[in-house]
């Protein structure tokens, strides 16, 4: 078997069998497999997954929480991760050699994570070292590839989440004079601004052109933002906010910090996915909310809170396309493959990459 055949055997596309099954047949198959495998199987489901998938999740949450739960669940030999590629990588990094992590559809990626590859990052690091010398500490959002986490770990940095970003940025400044924030410029900008860093002290590194976008003197730069973004959250605009303020002046606007700076500034509240969920749960009956985050989650919150008036901040927003790659058909296929002992769509991070990536994660976890 050559390399191409090997890859195809491990990462096959969905067989026609599952395309021809009814919803009832697929759901019954998933339930049957879960019952037969018991504790040996663990299905983590990210908040942004479709309801047809999330109904079978053993745990729901954000990417890091789900990876940690996978690692804590020592009885689980098989972890079928319903999320995207970088999330499954993190689960593989944190779990043991006796546990295997699977991604039901290998096309389920993250456009933000893909905006920073390791070759661009190594080139950027060389470029920035020439400009600033040994004054920079790298931080990466957990929404990044294992290779980027590994690079950050090898260079003394750490990962961050949208919940602990402020704490981690403060920590970075206790280590070095400057920081490089990958791969989401908006979370980096919003976080730095919140702790008192001026917008005129933030530069943007453009990985496509290998240039630093900054108009002032270089010695003024404190934060270097990677020019990446979430394709979902960047689609919330100041015009969306103006529409809500005009048509529903009593409605509160809550957004994710992956939104643009001007959107966050004009909103009433901003925070992580869990922050948004908890704010809605704690709000009184009859309260009104416009939420700036992924549409599957917004629709789920609408269904869970019929006593509240909840809408998407952008009424034309679509669910995250890559998150939606995983559907009931792919979940059923993945589970049946696992039960039959087939190594389909296994996510495995090489040992060297995993070691340094784990360093970056552990530095964060020690401070959180």
Question: What does the model show?
Answer:
By secondary structure, the protein is of the alpha/beta class. It has three domains: 3-108 and 323-350, NadA-like (Rossmann fold), CATH 3.40.50; 113-230, Rossmann fold; 233-312, Rossmann fold. It is 44% helix and 15% strand. The chain has helices spanning 3-10, 16-19, 23-37, 51-54, 63-72, 85-94, 118-132, 146-154, 165-175, 185-194, 238-247, 261-266, 273-282, 295-304, 328-339, 351-367, and strands spanning 41-42, 44-46, 59-61, 78-80, 100-102, 136-141, 158-160, 178-182, 202-206, 211-213, 223-226, 252-255, 269-270, 288-292, 309-312, 346-347. The strands form four sheets. Strands 7-6-8-11-9-10 form a six-stranded mixed sheet, sandwiched between helices. A four-stranded mixed sheet has the order 1-4-5-16. Strands 13-12-14-15 form a four-stranded parallel sheet, with helices on one face. Helix 12 (261-266) links the parallel strand 12 and strand 13. Helix 5 (63-72) packs parallel to helix 6 (85-94) and helix 8 crosses helix 16 (351-367). The longest helix has 17 residues, at 351-367. Mean pLDDT is 93; it is low at 1-11. Keywords: 4Fe-4S, Cytoplasm, Iron, Iron-sulfur, Metal-binding, Pyridine nucleotide biosynthesis, Transferase. Iminosuccinate binds at residues 46, 63, 141-143, 162, 256-258, 273. It is an enzyme of class 2 (transferase).
């Amino acid at each position: 078997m050559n390399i191409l055949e090997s890859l195809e055997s491990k990462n096959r596309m969905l067989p026609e069998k599952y395309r021809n099954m009814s919803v009832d047949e697929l759901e019954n198959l998933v339930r049957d497999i879960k019952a037969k495998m018991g504790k040996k199987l663990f299905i983590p489901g990210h908040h942004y997954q479709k309801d047809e998938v999330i109904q079978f999740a053993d745990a729901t949450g954000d990417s890091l929480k789900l990876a940690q739960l996978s690692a804590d669940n020592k009885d689980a030999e098989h972890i079928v991760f319903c999320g995207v590629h970088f999330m499954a990588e993190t689960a593989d990094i944190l779990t043991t050699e006796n546990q295997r992590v699977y991604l039901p559809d290998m096309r389920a990626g993250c456009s933000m994570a893909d905006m920073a590859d390791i070759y661009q990052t190594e080139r950027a690091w060389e470029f920035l070292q020439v400009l600033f010398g040994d004054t920079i500490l790298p931080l990466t959002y957990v929404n990044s590839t294992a290779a980027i986490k590994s690079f950050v770990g090898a260079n003394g940095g750490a990962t961050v989440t949208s919940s602990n970003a402020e704490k981690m940025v403060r920590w970075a400044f206790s280590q070095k004079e400057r920081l490089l924030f990958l791969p989401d410029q908006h979370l980096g900008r919003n976080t730095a601004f919140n702790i008192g860093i001026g917008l005129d002290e933030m530069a943007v590194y453009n990985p496509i052109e290998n240039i630093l976008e900054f108009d002032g003197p270089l010695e003024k730069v404190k934060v270097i933002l990677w020019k990446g973004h979430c394709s979902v959250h960047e689609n919330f605009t100041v015009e969306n906010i103006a529409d809500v303020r005009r048509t529903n002046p009593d409605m509160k606007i809550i957004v994710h910090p992956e939104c643009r700076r001007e959107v966050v500034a004009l909103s009433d509240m901003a925070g992580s996915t869990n922050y948004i969920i908890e704010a809605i749960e704690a709000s009184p009956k009859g309260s009104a909310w416009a939420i700036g985050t992924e549409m599957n989650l917004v629709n789920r919150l609408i269904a869970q809170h019929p006593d509240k008036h909840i809408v998407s901040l952008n009424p034309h927003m679509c669910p995250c396309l890559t998150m939606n790659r995983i559907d009931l058909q792919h979940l059923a296929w993945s589970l049946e493959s696992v039960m039959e002992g087939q190594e389909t769509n296994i996510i495995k991070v090489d040992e060297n990459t995993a070691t340094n990536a784990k360093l970056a994660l552990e530095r964060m976890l020690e401070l959180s």
